[in-house]
Amino acid sequence: MTSEKTIARLSLYRRLLGQLADAGTASVYSHQLAKSARVTPAQVRRDVMAIGYHGSPSRGYMVAELIKSIDDFLDAPQGQRAALIGVGNLGRALVAYFSGRRPQLSLVAVFDRDPKLVGKNFHGCPCSPVEQFAPTRNSLDIAIAIIAVPASEAQAVADICVKAGIHGILNFAPVPLNVPATVYVDNIDLTVELEKVAFFARSMNRRKTRPAPRRR
Amino acid sequence: MTSEKTIARLSLYRRLLGQLADAGTASVYSHQLAKSARVTPAQVRRDVMAIGYHGSPSRGYMVAELIKSIDDFLDAPQGQRAALIGVGNLGRALVAYFSGRRPQLSLVAVFDRDPKLVGKNFHGCPCSPVEQFAPTRNSLDIAIAIIAVPASEAQAVADICVKAGIHGILNFAPVPLNVPATVYVDNIDLTVELEKVAFFARSMNRRKTRPAPRRR
DNA sequence: GCTATGCTGTGATTAATGTAACGATTGCCG
DNA sequence: CGGCAATCGTTACATTAATCACAGCATAGC
Q1: What are A66-110's pLDDT values in tens digits?
Q2: Which of A70, A134, A209, B87 is an S-S bond match for A164, by CB 3.0 to 4.6 Å?
Q3: Do A11 and B192 touch (CB under 8 A)?
Q4: A183 contacts in B (CB within 8 Å)?
């Protein structure tokens, strides 16, 4: 019912609100939050409405309360654990990036098929062989898989994840994955993104107008 | 005029077509290409229409010709060069990822403010201090900047890029950048993406239906 | 040559997404 | 204590994107 884009914006709002909270700000107006998130105030109000939080016309939104509401909406009560598969250059960078961000969403294990990597520890995550995915998933209650293997192996890895009962995949392999409709896949295709920028950079040079307000 | 999503799909089609060409396939039907790209056949036909290529009802699209058409549409005739700023964990992985992919879109320089990294070479890209960005941009004709610095420095780096005449930015820093309308920014916010997957993985577990057909 | 088949190209339609507009509400200031 | 200014909540509208559906063609088979 709540769209993908709304969820993405809520996640962004939460982080921005966290910064405000750190700075000691108690409340924000929709237009202030909109400005830092680079969206319209109406969009912010609509998104806030979607999670059932209510502000006051005079104070706007109470920062701490709104954060709490977004937490309640986005986070699983008992937290969620993720595993990363493919500890190459990109995989290692992602482990470093994701490690220790939020207790509610933590990276707890990594997998690779290279025996030289198995047994090593990456930011607190032990590396196991890919064959160990299913049992490890069960014992650690892993809900999310991050795929960072080469394109040629991505589908096979996705199949393993699906078979092990994973319902959410963040896929960095440049291949559209074939999974059942019960599994959510978010593809991040870095090559596509770069080529997109290249194209629009060109069109910006020609006519000096933006094709569409960029966001994310 | 041509939308962001269309460009992203064209980039994907091109790669898929390249694989077909390597396999010796001479022609494809829209439904075949649609299947590997995980979109509808009508979508493929529309996208192909957008670049002005025409297939034949009996043979479908000639693979080599269609690739050529997409190249003509997406690529700059004289090629485009990119630079990456911020050679941390993620930055290094990205350099490795983007290096030597396509001659038409090559990474030629990297920048960092850490003196220990300056002077080093990353996959053929010399590392310069960030202050050198503008002159290097001019001498190497850099059109695209990839920002992989910490959030706290991202805006300052973006300002440098804009001032140096960059019109396309691929931003990995988790901050919405403030740039003039003549600059195209594509934000890849990894935290947001992971939280999105976490949320939908949860909703998949509850009701066994997908909220929307996933693509990219 | 003629018909049947299956595909492309594209206008029409539907769905998704974002924006604008405006009544309702709250506190402030005189 | 009452109007004023500013903001929220929500419905209505606009815009964009994706799908449908079918006319028009090209080929293959007879």
Answers
A1: 999 999 999 999 999 999 999 999 999 999 999 989 999 999 999
A2: A134
A3: yes
A4: 204
